[in-house]
Amino acid sequence: MKNTRWWLIRHAPVPNPGNMIYGRSDPAADTGDSDALAALAARLPAQAVWVTSHLRRTRQTAAALRLPGSDMALVERALAEQDFGAWEGLSHDEVAALHPEETRRFWSDPATEAAPDGESFAAVMERVAGAVARLTDLYAGRDIVAVIHGGSIRAALALALDLTPQAALRLAVAPLSLSRIDHYGSGEEGGSWSVTALNALGTFPGNVR
Q1: CA angle 201, 31, 35 (to 5 degrees)
Q2: Which Pfam families match (predicted)?
Q3: In contact, 68 and 79? CB cutoff 8 Å
């Protein structure tokens, strides 16, 4: 039985003094914490397959870890952060003022409701699960280092733990944290999962959405 190990890293913090919503937007990350990056890099395996989303904060973080393979990471769009549509680039206060009805509907069930022209967290879980299964099957028996996002890491953990979207949203994922899920068997044919780490090394400085 093959054991495929996913090393899930949330990208470095994004400076966001205005508390703007930036799910699918593309702001830069702050990769200046060399001590945190070195501690994280020391935990990661050699000879791994590296994966990022297409958003630059994940690619910047992978490059800052400076490990073999990080500069040639696969770009997997299906592992991107949740798309908040018309709310991207707005603060939470601006969203509440400009879209009061949509805001009330969204917060009535944030797991299955979506922002205007955006996607729900349930939809994020579906696309992430498909990508994880596909890559697990393609790289069965390997280590996969995925430098991705809080939402996509929640979705991967939900897959491993068999969580509903509502339950998965209770998981907080810190910047520059390491979580790990292990798969036994074939990704496309089922198999079983275990969670061996959650938020290792990460810290929670204020709002980390």
Answers
A1: 45
A2: His_Phos_1
A3: no
> Cα separation of 29 and 11, whole Å?
7
Alpha helices, H only, the chain: 34-43, 56-65, 92-98, 100-108, 121-138, 150-161, 165-168
Give the amino acid at 175.
P
Distance in angstroms (rounded) separating the CA atoms of residues 77 and 51: 10
Q: What is the pLDDT of residues 18-54, one digit of tens each?
A: 999 999 999 999 999 999 999 999 999 999 999 999 9
What is the reported pLDDT for 106?
95
Instruction: Give the integer Cα–Cα distance in Å for 199 and 209.
Output: 14
Q: What is the mean pLDDT of residues 135-159?
A: 97
Stated pTM of the model: 0.93
